[in-house]
Structures are given as structure tokens and as C-alpha cells.
Amino acid sequence: MAYFESPDLVLNNLCIFPETGELPADQLADCYRQLEEIMHKKGFFVHQIIKQTIFISANSNSEYIQSKAKLLACAKDFLDEYTPTTILTQSPENGTLALELNYVTGIRPEEITRKHNEQATWIVLQRGPVKMIVTSGLGETTETTNILLQSNAAFRQLQDILIEEQMEFSDIVRQWNYVEQITGNYCHNSSTSQHYQIFNDVRSSFYQPASFKNGYPAATGIGIDCGGVIIDIIAATFSDEKSVIAVKSPVQLDAFSYTREVLAENNAMHDFSRTTPKFERAKILNSSEIRLIFISGTAAIKGQLSTSQLSVEQQTEMTIQNILSLISRENLLKHGIDNAEVATINYLRVYVKYNKDLAQVKYTCLKYFPQMSILYVVADICRPELLVEIEGQAIIG
Asked: Which residue in 69, 171, 328, 335 has a CA-CA distance of 20 to 30 Å to 212?
């Protein structure tokens, strides 16, 4: 996932694919079987796992709800029941199931606290002046999709956790926003409202009271086949406010500065309507304890406009170039990072709109990152014309 600068404290990312099993729960159990072997080999323990994401396929919300219950029961048999868990209907490249884990090594037990309320679980990491919280799977899935209600439910759950931890929305440094049928429309009173625009407007309403003096979070807004709205976040506070830096792209307009030309319709809300997506292109955490870059979901966009005429190969190339420009030495220098230091990407998650394009996208990515562990999943992108989106993390050093 990412690395603290302290040599003995590391946040790691690990992806496991099932080798056996017909049903999703059996496949997940096989992933945990493999995990036991991996933990023994790498020398870490179950209690160090702070977050897991399970990728599956589902054709309806009812199927998703049933699968989710069985998968959570399986996970509870292996992991602490208060491990933050997200189950996403984004088919992984193997077409069955994938397990992504985030675990911490080199941390003392008293520096990790697991918490929960009636609706959510979260992890608190505390070392010196740095406090981080990790939570995932926030949301309320029902058989009938209502993105407005589900967005409000997810943000209320997040708000409750932030209040409990004496944090604000402005303390979020990384946010993942999963929206069912993201470019689909909610029809009501003879009008239509796009799901993603509804979500953006709800986000704007919850964000409004916070100052965001260090910029909005790095974020991804991506589609899921079922599941309503699901939010994952990492929030952090530091003794020095300058430890958190919002990164501007040399080639892309800030998403929160988009004009209405690229925004969709939302007739479901009156107080907040057609507001911009509130996220930064990347977020730097730069202190004596931690030095990393969270790279937001990035696509083939120049300025604020999509390059829809490009093939999936060309879109993937442009997306990668956008990311490399974003974390280039020249751009980091503009944001106060010493010219002698560089950013090295250490993890990528790649979203591909159509399954038929997976092989081409993978081929293009491997040209640039031949040795990197990359997770590929099939997911709808936030604009109909876009075919691929890539997010990631990088270390500074």
C-alpha cells in the first residue's frame, strides 16, 4: 500500500487469487489458506492486517447481499471481526474472486486500536504526533437502488467515525468512492439524475463545513455493478499542517474547478446541485514519520475534457503519462519536495471498462511497470467515453 519513512513501520499491499473453490466463499477460504503460508514466509501476523477488499462478480443487489453475508462469515472465521472490509462487485481479471489486503509491519501492539459501532469498523494507528484512521465498507446496500439515500447513509456513517476520532472531513487524505452503475440515471418526477452527479452533490454538502486548507483528499470515483454506494477512507493528522500537500497536475485541471460543460444532471437535490467532484489529483504526506503520495484515480483527460476518440491502448498510454507527469521530479519540486528526491510508484490498481480490453490494457501497463504487482478489475468509469482508470501509491526518497 504505502510506506512510513520510519524503517520499522511499513504499510503493505498484498493481492491473492484463489486456486480452488467453486463458490465465492470457498474461493475466499482458499485465499486465506494461501495467506497463512504467505504470512509464515513474510513473517507477519493476522493482527497486523488493517484492511481487506474482496472483489467478486454479482448480477443483482439481492445476489450481492447474499454473497456478502457468506463472505463476511468466512472472513470472520479467519480475521478479527473488526477488520475493516469492503466487498466490491468489480470482476477481477481471473473472473472469479480476488483478495486485496493491507497490513502493517514493525508496529507495536499498543499503536493499533480496533474500533466499531453498530454500522462500521475502523482501525486507529497512532505513533507520536501522527494519527491515522482506516475504515472501509461504509454504506447501506438494499435490493432497490437509491443513490441519493445510499450516498447520504455512507457519508453519515463516515461522519460519525470522524466525530468519534475528533477529526473532520478535511483530515481525509485518501478516499475511495464506489457507485453502483456510476453513469446510470435515477428517474423520478419525469426527470433523470446521473448517479455519479448525485454522489458528487451529496459529497459537496457533507464537505461544505470543513475548511480543506490543505486541499481535498486524493480520491477515486468508480463504478460497481451492484451494492449502492460504498466509501473507504484513510484520514491522518500531523503536528505540522505542512506535512499534507495537495498536488496539482501539469496537464489536468483540478476536478473541483470543472465547468458545467463536463458535469451531468442532478434534479434530485435542490440545495446542492451539479457541484464539482471534490478531490485532488494526488496527496503528499511528507513528515519525519511518513513520506508517500496517494495518486487519485486518473484517466485520459487533458484539461477537463476526455480524449474519447482514442483507442483503449492510447487511453491507457495517456493515463500513465498523466500519472508520470503528476509525480515527476519537476512537479514535486513545484510542491516543495527537494529536487534530489524522486517518487517511485509501488502499487497500482487498474480499472478497465470492458473485459475484452483487459489483455491490451495489461500489455500496455506492463511496458511501463514490468516488475510491479498490479491489480486489474473490470469496472465502469465515471465518464461514458472513458475506457480505463488507474490509481496508485508512490514513495518519496
From this structure: 328
Q: Average pLDDT of the chain?
A: 93
pLDDT in tens, 56-92: 999 999 999 999 999 999 999 998 788 999 999 999 9
* Strand locations in 238-313 (E): 244-247, 282-286, 291-298, 301-302, 305-306
Hey, which residues does 14 pair with through a beta bridge? 101
In order of 56, 112, 164, 170, 239, the CA distances from 128 in angstroms are 38, 12, 20, 21, 9
Task: Report which residue type is found at 159.
Answer: Q
Residue 127's pLDDT is: 86
Residues 325/251, Cβ–Cβ less than 8 Å: yes
Closest residue by Cα to residue 394 from 337, 316, 318, 317:
337
Distances (CA, A) of 90 to 152, 177, 322, 367, 380: 22, 13, 24, 24, 9
- The amino acid sitting at 245 is I
| 320 to 122, 285, 308, 316, 365: CA distances (angstroms) | 32, 22, 16, 6, 8
Q: How far is CA 133 from the centre of its chain?
A: 14
- Is residue 293 within 8 Å of residue 343, measured between CB atoms? yes
- Give pLDDT, residue 10: 67
Residue closest to 45 by CA, chosen among 94, 105, 132? 105
Q: Where are the alpha helices (DSSP H) in the chain?
A: 24-42, 61-78, 147-164, 195-207, 312-326, 329-334, 358-368
Q: How far apart are CA 388 and CA 339, in angstroms?
A: 31
284: cell is 503528499
Helix, strand, coil content of the chain in percent (nearest 5): 30, 35, 35
Domain boundaries, the chain: 2-396
Residue 351 corresponds to which amino acid? Y
Task: Please report which residue ranges of 255-357 form alpha helices under DSSP H.
Answer: 312-326, 329-334
d(C-alpha 10, C-alpha 4), whole Å:
5
Q: In this structure, what are the phi and psi dihedrals at residue 114, rounded to the nearest 5 degrees?
A: -105, 130
* Contact present, 57 and 98 (Cβ < 8 Å): no
Tally of CB atoms within 10 A around 231: 26
